[in-house]
Amino acid sequence: MIALTDILIRLGLAALLGSIVGLERQRHDWAAGLRTHMLVCVGSALAMIVSMDGFGDVINKPGVGLDPSRVAAQVISGIGFLGAGTILFMKSEIVKGLTTAAGLWTVAAIGLAVGGGLYIPAAATTLIVFIILAAIKPIERKIFDRNKYTAINLEAGKSQVDIKTVQEILGKHLIGIKEVRITSPDNDTDRIRIAIQKTSSKDPESLAVLQDLQKLNGVNVVEFVTQ
Fold first, then answer.
1. What's the average model confidence in pLDDT over 121-129?
2. Which of 26, 61, 100, 197 is deepest in the core (most CB within 10 A)?
3. What would you measure as the largest C-alpha separation in the chain, in angstroms?
């Protein structure tokens, strides 16, 4: 039997480690924040404790066939419903929230480790996860330019927007056009998706670009799309 004080220590440590990851996600206003990560970590730790210690009275009885490890194993597979809730399918075929979903899955694993008494691996994993979430993103942005605008969506009256004029406006802001796609959801509207790229290392003034495009005749909606 696991001592009561040891159980309380494990649950408390799980809450602490879950909060470290949760604080980083909360800082970015994601759906799964501080409380969600703490609950996942504590719940996972408790599941592991139950799996290890909750069936001692019956597991050795004749004719009883139990696999207590299945309780803990179901945590990893069951965390999927929470992960799915953090993933957002945005307009323009962009998916957001995958990192948070992966973080929740990892926090569940951390909770299992704490519940199993593997304190050092759990703490080390928490530190690694925090570094990945907090420190790698700026590096990723700098190297891969992932946080930059990748497209502009325009919604305008039918055949009222001259792409050449749009190109001139974007060129003024040091933005080049890679691809233009026009769809017509109805007889009165054109939806124009313009894949863009910077022509300078200087970041464009997004508000100024939007304002210039909004001034075009017939334009009803204009928005940047990020990836």
1. 96
2. 100
3. 83
Q: Which residues contact 49 (CB under 8 A, 6 or more apart)?
A: 2, 7, 10, 11, 115
Tell me which H or E stretch contains 225.
strand 219-226
Comparison of pLDDT for 29 and 7, the residue scoring more: 7
- What are the C-alpha distances in Å from 124 to residues 73, 117, 127? 21, 14, 5
- The residue written with tokens 């799309």 in the block is 225
pLDDT for res 89: 54
pTM for this predicted structure = 0.61
Q: How far apart are CA 111 and CA 50, in angstroms?
A: 13
What separation in angstroms does the CA of 167 have from each of 17, 18, 192?
A: 50, 48, 13
